[in-house]
């Protein structure tokens, strides 16, 4: 399962690090067959999602039960998970897992407690400020069905709680076996208020518009498949969203001092997420490149998700050998990866040169995998190059800002004439007059 190795920055940009504009995931034949089976004809993914969203918006709970059966193969008797089921979940997971989830939540909570901004108002002559308030209700989408992601519950719900959100709602597909007990235990640890056994585009629509059972939220957060992301794009405006997330990606910058076994392990950890995941090593050492390639071949044997890994390594991953580490950092800043691991000597000094990355993992004892679970920052990070302008999920995503303007007469006298002049230049005479009336009434000596 040899990795592709390219030489030089130009080849890396043209191949491994090239993202086609507007890149989309091509529907698999099995997926298209499933669409024909459910909807009776061939439909584009966007058309499927638009139909589901409108159906949920107009039919509410009835559509949710219908799609749970037709799309997820789940015969659910209730959309909302009961308190009794939440309690039973606690006895279905091991004490070790429960303890690990609690540790993760504690570290996430501590990290995000340092990130929250506070309201401020200058009650002096400035008369300006901001009220920083939490959103009232947010919805977290947590992938599920064939796999469980309790970590995503913690990485989204805990920051919302730290922000002071009054009500936190989780939606996760039930599948044939119901929602994973681990997911429900994580929801309890994160102090989630309500959990709904719904998934896919239908869950996004229910959270965005509300149904008889599902409350309408102010914002929807969390990762998901192509249907979830298309639905988030469609409902934006009716509700806020945190971002649109594509396949996950990691870039490792390593020099000759890096441990080839660790580099290979980190690449494989990324590749096992999804056949569309990207796991890329950039190094200035040809010897390390060959050693990592050999290690990947050795370590992949026996891994439970080797088929998924093979898809990622063949289509989306590889190794680039470049002239030096400065060139490697330049490539990273152009690519703007979700995750960047620095496995080089003097890693801190190179971290300061990185402008575009969702998260930077510094040194061999800071693997990206620990960031997925227990480091502290949320693992919901910008993908697909959006780290050029986007940020990881933080408490900021659950806060809204209201500007406060309370200038006194002296300040109005100083700034009002300029405001009126700009208003008249824009042809807005009423704006100018609203200012000038007040300017004329300011007592002498206060302007």
SSE diagram, text form:
Layout: E1 5-7, H1 9-14, H2 29-39, H3 45-59, H4 61-70, H5 83-92, H6 95-113, E2 120-121, E3 128-134, E4 137-141, H7 150-163, E5 167-171, H8 181-189, E6 194-196, H9 200-209, E7 219-221, H10 226-235, E8 240-241, E9 249-254, H11 260-271, E10 278-283, H12 286-299, H13 306-315, E11 318-321, H14 325-335, E12 339-343, H15 347-351, E13 359-362, H16 368-371, E14 399-405, H17 409-425, H18 429-440
Parallel strand pairs: 1-11, 4-5, 4-7, 5-6, 7-8, 9-10, 9-12, 10-11, 12-13
Antiparallel strand pairs: 2-3, 3-14
Helix pairs in contact: 3-4, 3-9, 3-10, 5-8, 6-7, 6-8, 7-8, 9-10, 11-12, 17-18
CATH class of the largest domain: Alpha Beta
> What is the CA–CA distance across the termini?
77 Å
CATH arch. level architecture of the largest domain: 3-Layer(aba) Sandwich
Provide the CATH topology of the largest domain.
Rossmann fold
Cα Rg: 26 Å
Enumerate how many helices there are, as a single number. Answer: 18
The gross shape turns out to be: globular
